[in-house]
Every structure is written in C-alpha cells, then in structure tokens.
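Quick one, tokens below:
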C-alpha cells in the first residue's frame, strides 16, 4: 500500500504537458496513399482533425510530448493513446496508432496546405 501511495505522489509531482496551438506545418490534408481517396486522408485543423473520412474530432497539441523533442497531436477523448508527430526532416507526419514505442505506425505525406 505504501508503494502505491509513493507512486501516486511521484506521478502527481510530474509537470503536465504544455499545450500549444497546432503548428502551421501540421495543418492541412495528408495521405498515407492516394490523396484523392478519402479513406487514406488525415485532415488537421487548428482544433479538430478527421481521419479516413470519419467525423471531425477535437484535438490537443502538446509541444513537449515526444521524447525526440517534437510535439504531438492527441485526440481530446479519454482512452485514446494514439498520436500524430510532425517530422521536420522529411516533412511528414507519423501516426503512432497504438501510442509511442508500440507497433502500428502510419506515415502521411502532405496533399495540400488547405484543410478540407
């Protein structure tokens, strides 16, 4: 029991991730295949994102989330562990479908600078 209390105190002492506006480089329409196919698209706006033709869902961007010094977009909904990280060197977005350090990554390339 004491170990659980100590763990709770340790976790409570960790700083909360910093939220920030979604970077301009991430805004727009992205695809993991052909840009013309809705089932392959990721559309990112300032407050919502839409994946594979689904309905727009609220997002939050944490500027200090990724261990490599990158920020990441997360769904605001509870229970979602996946995230989206912009890779400046390749100008692509990686979708960690099961969270960090887990299998299931999808790489997106930009279709357009506009959101749709």
């Amino acid at each position: 029991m004491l170990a659980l209390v100590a763990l709770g105190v340790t976790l409570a002492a960790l700083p909360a991730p910093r939220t920030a506006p979604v970077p301009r480089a991430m805004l727009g329409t992205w695809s993991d295949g052909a840009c013309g196919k809705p089932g392959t698209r990721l559309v990112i706006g300032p407050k919502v994102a839409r994946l594979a033709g689904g309905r727009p869902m609220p997002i939050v961007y944490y500027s200090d989330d990724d261990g490599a010094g990158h920020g990441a977009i997360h769904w605001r909904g509870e229970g979602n562990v996946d995230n989206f990280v912009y890779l400046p060197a390749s100008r692509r977005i990686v979708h960690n479908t099961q969270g960090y350090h887990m299998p299931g990554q999808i790489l997106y390339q930009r279709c357009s600078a506009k959101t749709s």
